[in-house]
Structures are given as C-alpha cells and as structure tokens.
Amino acid sequence: MTLKETSRLTSSKALACLRVPNFPWQVEVARKPELHDRSAIVAGKALDLVEELTSMPSGSGSGSKASDSLSARVVLAASPDLTDVMPGMPLTEAASRHRGVLIIEANIPLYALVFDEIIENLERLVPDIEATAPGLAYVGIWGLEGLYGDDAHVVRLLAGAVDGFDLRIGVGNNKWLAYAASLLSRSNSGRKVTGDPGKFLDRFPVDSLPVPYSLIKRFHAFGLTTMGHVADIPRGPMEAQFGRAGGTAWDLAHGIDNRPLVPKRSVLGVSEHLDFPDPTASIATIVPAIESLLGRAYGRSQFSRRFARQANIQSQVFQHAPWTMRVAFKDPAGNKNQALFAIKSKLDMAVIPGPLEDMRLTLSGITGEAGRQESMWKEVKRDTDLQETISQLRSRLRVSPPIYQVRELEPWSRIPERRYALVQMSSSGGEEAEKIG
After folding, report:
1. Which pairs with CB-CB distance under 8 Å and at least 24 residues apart come from 72-75?
2. pLDDT, tens digit (0-9, with 9 covering 90-100), for 269-295
3. Contacts (Cβ under 8 Å, ≥6 apart) of 424
4. In what order do the strands lie in the sheet with 136-140?
C-alpha cells in the first residue's frame, strides 16, 4: 500500500474516498469465477450509477425525465476489457457496440449486502463513515493520526479492512477532490491531493463528472472534453446551456464541493447464504432451505435473547432477473419457528419467476425486546397465543380459519342437540355459533 501526494496536506478536515471500481462486476466475479475472462455487462433499471454514487443533482429538475431514466435499463458495470462502456450508458447503446456480449441482470440487494459487510469492518476502525452506495464510501480521517500514525498508515489500515476487492483510495479536502484522487490511484493504493484544485483537475475528462450520461454526451458535442474546458467557461453560460447540472459541473471543475460528510450507520442484521445443488422452483425444497438458514441465523451469538422485525430473501434465478421477498413480522420473531411461520404465509402468495440458484436470508431490525406484554396468568396467555395463531391463519388463508370450540348452551335440555354448540373462534376474540350438536 502506497500513498502518493501531489502537495502537502494542510486541512484538518481531510476526507478519504474508498472506491471499488465496477463493484457489481467484482461481486459477480467473486460469485462465479468463470466470468473472470469473459466480456460482460451488468445491467439493471437504475439511475446513472456515477450520479447515484456521489449524490449529485441530475440538473433536469423534471420529474418525468427522472421517471423515464428509472425505467430504462442502463449499464451498472462492465468487465475491464470493455473500455468504451461506462456506467449510466443505455444498455441498447452498449450492446450495439459489443454484439453478443454477456448481459448479467443486476442483483442490487446482493451488492448492498456485500458492501454492508465491508462497512461493518470499517466501522470497527473509524467512527465517521458515509456509505453513499454499493462500491463507494467516504471516511472522515481527521484526528486519526494520533491513533494510527500519518496518512499513509491510515490508508493502509483502511485498505486492510476491504479484503478481496480491487480498492482505490483518494484523500482530499472535500468529497469531490477525494473522489477525483481515487480515480488516479492504482489498485490497492492511495492518492492524496491538495493545493490548487483547478491545476490538478485541469486534464480530467468530463466523463468522470457525476452527472447523467446524456449530459456528458452533450458536453462532448460542445467540445468540452476536459474539466479545464468546463472551468474556462463562466458559470452563467454553463447554467444557461446545461441547466443546474451545468453549474454543478462548473463548481466541480474548480474543486468546489460543499457537501458535508453524513455518517450513516449500518443496520444491524444477520445474514446466511446457501447454494442449491441444482436450480429449483419446488416449494418442497425452498421451505427446508429457508428453515435451515433461519436455524443458522438464530443460532448465532447476535441473537441471544434478541428478536428480529424483518426478513429479506434474495435469490439468483436461472435465466431470469434476481428474485427478492421482504417479510415484515407482525410481532418481533425470537426464534426460528415464529419467523418461518410468517415467511411461509408470505411465500404461499409469492410468485417465483423461475428456478432458484441460491438463497440469502437476512434478518434485520434486531431488538432486545419482543415488543409485546405477556400476561402472568397462564389461561390468559394461552388465549392470547390462540388468538394470535388464528390471526396468522386468517392472514394466510384469507378466510376465517376452521377452528371451533365446544360451548355449553342449555345443559339441562332434554334434547342433546341443544345442550352444546360448536362455536367458531375468531381472531378478535369473538365467537359465532356454527353448529349445534
């Protein structure tokens, strides 16, 4: 791990940008090593990835255009050999340049989950981390010199917490400069930049700007191919021609970025994963798999006397887009059986698009309390549990469950049919006489 420096760092508010280039692609290769030597594109329905990762405004100000971009399939990442394919490019344009290229449907929940694990490792070392999106995070490194030494030692420490990925680290006085520095760093190394931002950014291509791909194409059409070209034009004409995004591009070309670091704590959760021997769509196979994952999750030390409020299931589907299912528990689930009951109820109504290749189950919203008050009287607790079971069955069957209780009506009657009634139980605690006999 090395740290190259263009000038002396003078600000006490330095930021580090941790960037994993082509993060979706790197995750896919880690899952399927056979993809390593293939030309492939990871595509999905999303906004321009660079814009999304750096939280910059699109500049259109139009809700309809944003909606259109959300519905269009775009490139999220590509194999390194496809040098003319960039994130945010429409998939149709990328595919026309490389006919026959392998298209991989993006598994957004999986990428987020993998990156959450990276952030959890970093949080053990540094307190101020903003995970902007999968593959990109900003870290406040001010005050760490006393703990870990100079900036080179801090960079080495951060890189050591991100194992198994091609990581690039940049250090600067704001988010944009740190991000730009990471663009120049080599694999598993860092780059620190201060001094005159305009001089440093002068020859950066406009393709590195966190603006929509369509705007980058317009920049090229006007002959604006570098950041220096953008900086040479007054801010007013830039905004007049390109809208708010033009003003943002002008600010960035001069190294101006006032976005604060907003630490986002990762949500405590427990995740388990398994691969099916063969792709399957059989409920008889899927349910035992879920039960096994729940058993492993609840068996971990994090769940000692704790409860989960939600379960998320993600699976790769053979020749289909990834499948996800979220189950919010009515009451926090403190064991495998409670969680499985709720998941099975949701699974009965779910549509599985095809054979599942794997399954990842994540329990989140972990709390130390069940969130309900139990009665000290056994009879009341028994009735409460029964009502809860009936309520769950009603939700699952979508009709009143066929559960009955025998009650006395006229025990003194000479007619046997009038002595007792078969009463249907309801989740509200009421009863309805269904049959006498």
Report:
1. 72/45, 73/43, 73/44, 73/45, 74/43, 74/44, 74/45, 74/46, 74/47, 74/48, 74/49, 74/213, 75/41, 75/42, 75/43, 75/49
2. 788 888 898 999 999 899 999 999 998
3. 400, 402, 403, 404, 431, 432, 433, 434
4. 3-5, 189-192, 168-172, 15-19, 136-140, 129-133
Where residue 255 falls (left for φ over 0; alpha for ψ -120 to 50; beta otherwise) is left
418 phi and psi angles, rounded to 5 deg:
-95, -5
Q: How far apart are alpha carbons 294 and 275 in whole angstroms?
A: 15
Which are the contacts of 257, defined by CB distance < 8 A and separation ≥ 6? 174, 175, 176, 177, 251
Give the 3-state secondary structure of residue 67: helix
Give the DSSP per-residue string, 362-415.
Answer: EEES-BSS-SSPPPSSHHHHHHHHHHHHHHHHHHHHSS----EEEEES-TT-SS
Class of domain 3-197: alpha beta
DSSP state at residue 266: P
Decide the pairing of beta strands 189-192 and 3-5: parallel
Query: What span, in angstroms and rounded, lies between the C-alpha atoms of 423 and 380?
Result: 19
The residues pairing with 328 across neighbouring beta strands, listed in sequence order, are 310
Residue 362 in tokens: 């994540």
pLDDT at residue 10 is higher than 70: no
- Please report the DSSP string for 181-192 in residue order: HHHH--TTEEEE
Q: Which amino acid, 280?
A: T
The architecture CATH gives domain 269-364: 2-Layer Sandwich (3.30)
Query: Residue 330: CB partners within 8 Å, gap ≥ 6?
Result: 342, 391, 392
Distance of CA 416 to the CA centre of its chain: 64
**Could you give the C-alpha distances from 10 to 105, 192, 220, 403, in angstroms and in order?**
45, 11, 35, 74
The backbone torsions φ and ψ at residue 426, rounded to the nearest 5 degrees and listed phi first, read -125, 155
Residue 8, SS3?
coil
CA–CA gap between residue 20 and residue 110 (Å, rounded): 15
The answer to whether the beta carbons of residues 73 and 93 sit under 8 Å apart is no
Contact 130/261 with Cβ under 8 angstroms? yes
Task: Give tens-digit pLDDT for 196-251.
Answer: 888 889 989 999 888 888 889 999 999 999 999 999 999 999 999 999 889 999 99
Place 394 in a pLDDT band, splitting at 50, 70 and 90: low
Domain ranges of the chain: 3-197, 269-364, 378-436
- 8-state DSSP, 267: P
